[in-house]
Amino acid sequence: MHVSGVQLFWFILIGLLWAGYFFLEGFDFGVGMLMPFVAKTDLERRALVNAIGPTWDGNEVWLIVAGGATFASFPLWYSTMFSSFYLAMFIILVALILRGVAFEYRGKGSSKRWKGNWDRIIFFGSLVPAFLWGVAFGDLIYGIPLNAAGTFTGNFFDLLQPYAIAAGVAMTLVFLLHGSLFLSLKLAGDLKDKVVAKVKIVAPFTTAFLFVFLGWTYLVARNDGHSGDVPGFIPVSALLIVASVSWLAREKLFGWAFIFTGAAIVAITATIFMTLYPDVIMSSTATRYSLSIVKAASQPYTLHVMTVVAIIFTPFVIAYQAWSYWIFRKRITLPTASVTTSSESDSK
Questions:
Q1: Residue 265, exposed/middle/buried by CB under 10 A (0-12, 13-18, 19+)?
Q2: Count: domains in the chain
Q3: Range of the domain at 129
Q4: How does the average pLDDT of the chain come out, rounded?
C-alpha cells in the first residue's frame, strides 16, 4: 500500500485543522467548565463569558473546515466515522448549539433562575463535547467494530471502552487547564487570582492523567496491529510541557504557560494522527478491516484541485482570525455595581 504525496498532504492538513480546533476551542471549553468553580456572582460569570464572547464562534469554524476537508478528501473516512459515531456526534452537535444559544440568551433576562439555567447549559455544553471528542479519537486509535465492507457493527456502548474513556478524561483535563490559563491572560484583579488558584490545582492532575493516557497509547500502538510510528519525543514533550505549567504559574509566566498548553495540545493531536498512520480508523474486529488512507481517499484529481484551493485561501482565514484576536486582546475587568446589566453579546 503506497500513500501518495497528495494523500499524505491532506492527512497532515486534517491533523493540523483538528489541532487548530482543539487549541482554540479547547480554551473556550475550559472557560465554560470553570464557570461554576471560579465565578460566584453574576458579574464574575459575565466576565468569563465576555472573555470568549468575541471569538468562540470563530473558533468553531475550524471544526467545520476539518469536517468539510475530511468529507472532500477522504469521503469513506467521513462516512464511516460519522455513521459509527452518529449518536455521539448528535450529542456533541446539540451541546454546541445549546452552548451558543446560552451565550446569546443568558443576558436577555434578569432573574437569577433564568441566568442560572443558561450558565448550567454553558457548563455542560462545554464539558460534554470536550469529553466526547476525546472518546471519539480514542476509539479511532483503539479500534471500533468494522466488518470487511467498512460498516460499523457495534452500538453506542461499544464506543465507551476504557481506553476511549481515558482519552476523553485526558482531553477534558487538558482543555480545563488550557482555559484557566487563557483566563489568567484575559482577567484582572481578584477574579484572576481565583483562576490562578485553580491552575495550581488542575495542573498536577492533568500531568498525572496525561502520563497514564500517553503510556496507554504507547501500549495500544505496539500491541494492536498499528503500523504507525510515533517518535518518542512527541508524547514525552507533551507530558513535560504540561508538567512545567505549575512552575510557570508560580512564576506568574502565564503567557508562556498558555503557549505551552497549546503546544501540548498540538503534540497530543500529532501523537493521535501518527499512531493512526497509514490508517484513519482501526477495526477491532480484524486488523485487515481497518480503513486506510489509500482506501478512504478521493480521486487524485479532486485532491489536486483541493490542494490549490487550500494553499490560496488558508492564509486568509488564519490572518483574519489572528486579526480578530488582536482587536479583542484587552483584559476583561469587572464592571462596577452601578453599571446596568447588559447582554454579553455586546462584546461581539
A1: buried
A2: 1
A3: 5-281+288-329
A4: 85
